[in-house]
Each structure stands twice: as C-alpha cells, then as structure tokens.
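Hello,

I think I submitted the zinc ion job twice by accident. Can you confirm which output corresponds to this input? Input:
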Amino acid sequence: MNQEPYVEVRLIQYHYNKDYGDTRVCECGHSYVRHFDPYESMENVGCKYCACDHFKETVTSMILEEKDYDSGLLSDYGGGDVKWWHDYLRNVIHDCNTYWRELIDSYTEK
Ligand SMILES: [Zn+2]
Ligand SMILES: [Zn+2]
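Support: Only one job matched these inputs. Its output is below.
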C-alpha cells in the first residue's frame, strides 16, 4: 500500500473586500455589501435577502463599473458653420456608441 501519513486539507476563506465596491450587484439581484454582516465585522454570511451564499457580479454591474467614453479634445474647426457642427456631433455620438457597443460585446462574448 502506497499511502501518505496525512490527508492534507486546505481551507479557503472568503472575506469582505472594502475596496471592491459595495454597490456592485450580484446575480441574486442584491448588492455586494448585503452579502456580509456589518454587526459581525463584515463576516461572510451570504445574502441577507435570499439564499445566495456566494457573490457573483452581474454583467450589467461589471459594465457599469467601466469608464465613460472619452472623446478627447474637441475640435473647433466648425466656427459658425452649423452644418459642420451637426456632422461633427454625429461623429462624436457615433464613436461613443461604438465604444459602448464594443465594450458590451467584450463581456457577452466571454
Ligand atoms: Zn448574491
Ligand atoms: Zn440575494
């Protein structure tokens, strides 16, 4: 018989992370901070409002943590040409939409 003298057991503990973001939303529909007990030094007690015992952030919540679109420096070439400004704004809006679409796609393709 080739047996080890001990059976090794390693315990994994999940503790509250104050820097994570209390308002992030779990797939159970409740916020991160609600998965811990503030009266027991933020012990990991599972969700207070349902049977969920392990926080897993929703895709929507993750996307909302992303930075907003940054257009960079805006141009002023248009001067008093309203039609130029209309085209310019359409382009900025288009770039902003593309930014968010690609970001959302990057989450849903996982
Ligand atoms: Zn939960
Ligand atoms: Zn819950």
